[in-house]
Each structure stands twice: as C-alpha cells, then as structure tokens.
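Today's session is about reading a structure prediction critically. Students often jump straight to the picture, but the first step is always the sequence itself: look for stretches that repeat, for charged clusters, for runs of hydrophobic residues. Only then move on to the predicted structure, which in these notes is written as discrete structure tokens rather than atom positions. Here is the chain we will use throughout the hour.
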Amino acid sequence: MKYNITKQIGKNAHHFQVEGENFHEAVMEAQKLSFRDVEKCGLCESDNLYLSAYVTKEDKYEYVKIVCAACRASLTFGKSKDKKDTYFLRRNDRGLDWQEYKEKGGSNKSNPVNQTANQDGQVDQTEDIPF
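Below is the predicted structure for this chain, in token form.
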C-alpha cells in the first residue's frame, strides 16, 4: 500500500510517498516524517523557505535543514540514533530552534552593521544604509 503525505515548508508544498505492506505499516512509515508544517521563518517571518541537505566532509554526518531565503536562518532536522529514518525538528525552550545565519568567523550577514571607532577608540555600530 502507498501513502502520500504533503508537508508545507513556507510557501512550498513537498509531497512524500511512503509504502507498507498494509495500512498500519504505511502509517508507521509516514510517522518517520514526524514534523509539522513550517509556515514561516522563526526569525524574520518570511515564507520564502526551502529544504537543503548535505553531508559533512570529515565525519560524513548527514543534515537536512529548512533555510530561509530572506535572512538565511536555518532550522535543522534531528535524527534519532536508534531510528535513523525518523526525522523531527530541533527545539529549544522557546520552541523551534531557528539558527541565525553567521558567516565563517562569526559575523552576522542577516543584520549587517558598519563598525567604526570614534576618537576614544570605542566602536560605534550603525545600521548599514544602502546610499
């Protein structure tokens, strides 16, 4: 038996198909996608979200993320160690664990800031103005 599931990630609908010998097995397979729809970015509230997957070079860890095309924040899917095909969205005490985008070296590109030192050597942070 085949079972079709639709998950909404931002403005995009993602269609998955699972299979089982019977209805019970098909539903059990569908539960491995144990996450709800994600309508918008948890940081900027954009609905321009997409799925991304990659494998790390060193340890060959597999990651799947939801990424915001507007601010580049991401929400990582977790995987159970004992049930490697079961995915869930990472959470923290406030809810879904959205991570702000930071370039290598720790700078935050989603909220650019110009830093200049004044005469006393203190850093003056002003928002980046495009003109």
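Discussion point for the tutorial: Helices lie at 23-30.
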